Automatic annotation (TrEMBL):
This is Deaminase. It comes from Kibdelosporangium aridum. Residues 3-187 form the Bacterial bifunctional deaminase-reductase C-terminal domain. GO terms for molecular function: 5-amino-6-(5-phosphoribosylamino)uracil reductase activity. One of its GO terms (biological process) is riboflavin biosynthetic process. Signal peptide: none annotated. Pfam families: RibD_C (PF01872). InterPro entries: DHFR-like_dom_sf, RibDG_C, Riboflavin_Biosynth_HTPR. Residues 13-34 are annotated as: Disordered.
């Protein structure tokens, strides 16, 4: 399976609290729900079709619990095509603290996470998808486990909140393999990791 990620981010790189005002208040974050209603029908179709081609899903614990409480529990969301895709596919959670996952068909990955994910990637199938899960996405990038990443960039600057990419961290070059902008100014950018960047020499 190809390991892919999909993340909604603001222009200043924030990914925290995209869904609602109350879904992520960590560190006194007060500007949630910034992605609600953004994007046109084509963008929403693109997101839905992305979920539908997943063979399995991989989550960090925080995102897993949010998804389990919504896509995995609420009848209206379970009936949506995204909910159907999530509920019908195997789900994996990278967590050292989760002991009793409540969402059907969930496996908790413990121990050597890199080895466990490499084993999943070696299985036949389409995509092992990561949605949200910022800490996990950063770890996967640092360990060269991501094959493709999609950024859905919402035209807003928050000025606070957890960012997808930290202030300091490993460097990475990316090849842009697809890009589009919708009628509401939301951009979709699909990247493939391409080793380390080249820097100017003295």
């Amino acid at each position: 399976m190809k390991l892919t990620t999909m993340t909604q981010v603001t222009l200043d790189g924030v990914m925290q609290g995209n869904g609602s005002a109350s879904d992520d208040r960590r560190n006194r974050f007060q500007r949630g729900g910034w992605a609600l209603g953004k994007g046109d029908d084509e963008t929403r179709t693109f997101i839905t079709q992305t979920y539908q081609r997943a063979e399995a899903f991989l989550f960090g614990r925080h995102t897993y619990e949010q998804f389990a409480a919504s896509w995995g529990s609420l009848d209206q969301m379970r009936a949506h095509p995204i909910g159907v895709a999530l509920n019908n596919a195997p789900k994996y959670v990278a967590s050292t603290t989760l002991t009793t996952p409540r969402w059907r068909d969930t496996t908790v990955l413990r121990g050597d996470l890199a080895a466990a994910i490499s084993e999943l990637k070696a299985k036949p199938g389409n995509e092992l998808q990561v949605h949200g899960s910022g800490a996990l996405t950063r770890w996967l990038l640092a360990n060269d486990l991501i094959d493709e990443m999609t950024l859905i960039v919402i035209p807003v600057i928050l000025g606070q909140g957890a960012r997808l990419f930290p202030q300091t961290g490993p460097d990475l070059a990316l090849d842009l393999i697809d890009s589009r902008v919708d009628s509401k100014g939301v951009t979709i950018q699909v990247y493939r990791p391409a080793g380390r960047p080249r820097y100017a020499t003295a």
